[in-house]
Amino acid sequence: MPRLPGVQKLPKKVWKNSLTPLQHFLRLFLMKLKYILTLSILLFSGAVLAAQGTQSETELDHWEDLRNLLQEDEDILLLDVRSLPEYEQGHIPGATLLPHVNIPGNPPQVPKDTRIIVYCRSGNRSAQALRMLTEQGFSNVSDFGGIYRWEGELNRGSAP
After folding, report:
1. Which residues partner with 79 through β-bridges?
2. What positions carry a catalytic annotation?
3. How many CA atoms lie within 13 A of 104 on its CB side?
């Protein structure tokens, strides 16, 4: 077999005790892969725990849960994060209008531990509002989702 110029043949004794280039490459690759997978799992776990920490302990699975909660606790801030025309067409009694686009520059003027429940039309904007409020330090925020889930009466008219 012809030899490449500048390449020396290693004695069999040295070759047996050392790694071949392919084995060396695979060993480094697996070590890096293990590091990347471990880091990914830690980051994902942290994101999941952070997301779980944004919602309040009380689940709002049904519209009656929200109605009962509003009747029992007058200190709850119920935020309608839709636009003014949507709010005027109908909103949950006791709701305060704060469009989600206004939250970054005009957050609610309440203590950071106030119980806040947000809702919109379908649940998309309320999820964004929940995220924005928690990023601003509000620690007791829940997302009711969309107003379509509310089966009680709606108030009509403009914001106070």
Report:
1. 96, 118
2. 120
3. 2
Say whether pTM exceeds 0.70. Answer: no
Q: How many domains does the chain have?
A: 2
Name the residue range of residue 133's domain: 63-149
Q: Return the C-alpha torsion angle 101, 59, 66, 137, nearest 10.
A: -40
Is 29 a domain residue?
yes
Average pLDDT, the chain: 84
- Say yes or no: 73 and 144 in one domain: yes
Whether the pLDDT of residue 48 is over 80: the answer is no
Residue 156 resides in a domain: no
Q: How far is CA 99 from CA 22, 118, 133, in A?
A: 60, 10, 12
45 and 85 belong to one structural domain = no
SS3 20: coil
- The per-residue pLDDT for range 90-137, each reduced to its tens digit, is 999 999 999 999 999 999 999 999 999 999 999 999 999 999 999 999
Say how far residue 44 (Cα) sits from the centre of its chain.
Answer: 12
Do 17 and 84 sit in the same domain of this protein? no
**Site of tokens 């071949």:** 20
